[in-house]
Specification:
The structure is a homodimer. Chain A has nine helices and no strands. By secondary structure, chain A is mainly α. Chain A has two domains: 12-50, Arc Repressor Mutant, subunit A; 56-193, Tetracycline Repressor, domain 2. In chain A, α3 packs antiparallel against α4 (85-102) and α6 crosses α7. Chains A and B meet through α6, α7, α8 and α9 of A and α6, α7, α8 and α9 of B. Chain A binds a DNA duplex through residues 1-4, 12, 33-35, 43-47, 49-51, 54-55.
Chain lengths: 199, 199
DNA sequence: ATAAAATGCTAACAAATGTTAGCGTGAATT
DNA sequence: AATTCACGCTAACATTTGTTAGCATTTTAT
């Protein structure tokens, strides 16, 4: 009988999805049951279906919302004039880090659990991810041509960047957290200029 | 009736664990059923229990074997005399990359699925992972003190390194694979010296 | 050759899974 | 005040889950 309390500006569906994102992150999509989710929402499992149509739909919403978010941003960055390749890379990195700090649960889930999507969503997500990586690779290749970036294998650089950023997961769990901006600066610096001290 | 074919030098249990690692990687631990595993092994689900005692045990074996492997290596590196901090970091990185290339399934599973361990194994794994990261952080801090490494936040550097390496997963899936050694060189170079071309 | 051990099978189990049906109640709309 | 709609509940469903029991057969050791 106790209704789902929705936050101001949000539907009850949003509440469910937010709680689901948290559980999917903690236990994974497959290991999270609808009864589990219901309990955290404060309702019986069957009641969830007044707001969502299936467990799969929840994952879809999380994944595609996040993916669109990143895709929009990179298009914006790429379209901005007068930016060096390094600046573009920095902007992309900082956006990733900020997203990881602000929308931790959803970004994390979307990155780790998208494999549990089912077709046609699965194929769709796969090509979106491929396209996204390809765009970053292009920026890097542009930088290499212009002599700003050293001639390394661009796809390798992309996967290092993206996975490095996803490491913020560990930061989230860590007790002695350093501040978000410090973290951001450190990550960008290490990726752009490396660990070694230059003489 | 068809028996599990074991490879030379390996028990049937090893075969099961190898197949399990592959499935756990592809679908995740929770989404892989024992019947699923049995089918890939070529046997009925119940027959698996002549070789293993539970699904959980399979995950335990994969995770702890891998963890011990990494722990042994870092102890060895750390004990080697006449090595600069940068050289130690490079050795650790190269070992990670090599492990990821040679024992892909198990390393990947152990990194992504250890959360599904149950206590006491879960706690045990958590502290092993913490200890491992701490050791790397110490190497970095040593390097900072000696002026080889720029003064960045060591835990941040560790998480970047480790997650960057786990990005080889994408490389594995990629069609146009570059050679293993080239990948290794690229990764080490990017992490140690960064993306930016030095003037 | 015979006993013991290893390994496979079928059948079955209890529990957990996602989901639907149908009903009741309070809030919103007419 | 009457009606509709939103949203919660309980009960139930068909599958799927990990696992065990019991038996048959093959392999190994005596």
């Amino acid at each position: 009988m106790a209704k789902i309390k929705r936050n101001r500006n949000g539907t009850r569906k949003d509440v469910i999805i937010a709680k689901a994102a948290k559980l999917f992150r903690e236990k994974g999509f497959s290991a999270t049951s609808m009864r589990d989710l219901a309990e955290h929402v404060g309702v019986e499992a069957a009641s969830l279906y007044n707001h969502i149509s299936s467990k799969a739909e929840i994952l879809q919403e999380i994944c595609f919302k996040t993916a669109n978010n990143f895709m929009s941003h990179i298009e914006e960055v790429d379209a901005t004039p007068n930016k060096t390749a390094i600046e573009k890379i920095q902007a992309i990195l900082r956006f990733h880090i900020k997203q990881m700090l602000d929308n931790y649960e959803e970004v994390y889930v979307s990155d780790r659990e998208w494999k549990h999507l089912t077709d046609p969503y699965l194929s769709n997500m796969q090509s979106q991810r491929r396209a996204y990586r390809q765009r970053i690779a292009s920026v890097i290749e542009e930088g290499i041509r212009k002599g700003e970036i050293k001639p390394i294998d661009a796809p390798t650089a992309v996967l290092i960047m993206l996975h490095a950023v996803s490491g913020i997961e560990s930061w989230h769990r860590s007790k002695k957290k350093i501040a978000g901006e410090v973290l951001e600066d450190n990550m960008v610096q290490i990726l752009v200029d490396g660990l070694r001290k230059q003489a």
